[in-house]
Amino acid sequence: MDLRDLRYFAAIANGGSMTAAAKALRVAQPTLTVAMKQLEEHLGTQLFIREHNGVRLTVTGEELLRHAHDVFRLMEEAERRIKGLESEEEGTFVLGCHESLGAYFLPTFMARFLRDCPKIELLISNENSAQVRDSVVERRTDFGIVVNPSPHPDLVMVELFHDAMDVLVAEDAPPPSRPLSAYLPPADDADAPPETSRDGGPPSSRRDPAFEIARHRLLAGPIIYAGRVKQCQDLCEALGNAGLLTTRKLVVGDLEMVKSLALAGIGPALLPRRVGSYGHEGKLVRLNPQLPFIPDTIYLLYRADMHRTSAALRVKDALIAHGKQLDTQHAV
Q: Burial code of 81-107, b = ≥16 C-beta within 10 A, e = fewer?
């Protein structure tokens, strides 16, 4: 059924005559006559009874008019909705990030954003950073908050803030039971070349007392980390290359479990500094600044061809602003 013919039909029915409808629609009366003949043939029914002073609807004509009004209402609603999505701050978006990253990034952001933009709905998807990146590429996720992503030609990557996978320990953790002397280098090692920190900082001697205490705690173990997190694997390798990796390892599934065990004072833990600090400020501290660590940069990802509605731009700008503010207020 042609929508134009349906509008012609409704105009004739509401006006009561071909002449009135032609005047209202600003079309020639023969055009309406031809259109109604085609519509009646298409539907296989008579829609009008022609009278000397106009037209009257048949039973099927009255039924079609009711449906025509419903169609026009739906079209008007669709038009309002589409225009609203394009120009107003209204819509639904999927935001992807790792659980532990989201645990400190999202609460303040979501509370403020949902208050300021009540017509925008944000759905949260929790995956690791590589999965979030792929999800954005595949259009399953609109925005991703990702750690150290690899570039992709279809993605825009906006640097937000910085972090680092580091060796953290509970501030009040008891010292290991074995004496420090058990971990001191032998006397003939006194002239060994100094160590170099993972971030390229100044060399540090293994005879430095603070470093020896850190080394003591590391080798006493157990060292706690999430085995599936790549930065943990990389940091374990760096510690091993420096002769600082204990054989006592407690490998768990996720960073939140690592954090809980570290807070209990079980042993040194491999954690992003921000994950270690949120909710427990000052409870977990860096074991030693001279130890290896893995720098992290957190990015906002979205597709370069993203439909830039008013709502999409509002979400993007709010995420960037929050990330930049986080970097300024909580530098690591």
A: eeebbeeebbbebbbbbbebbbbbbbe
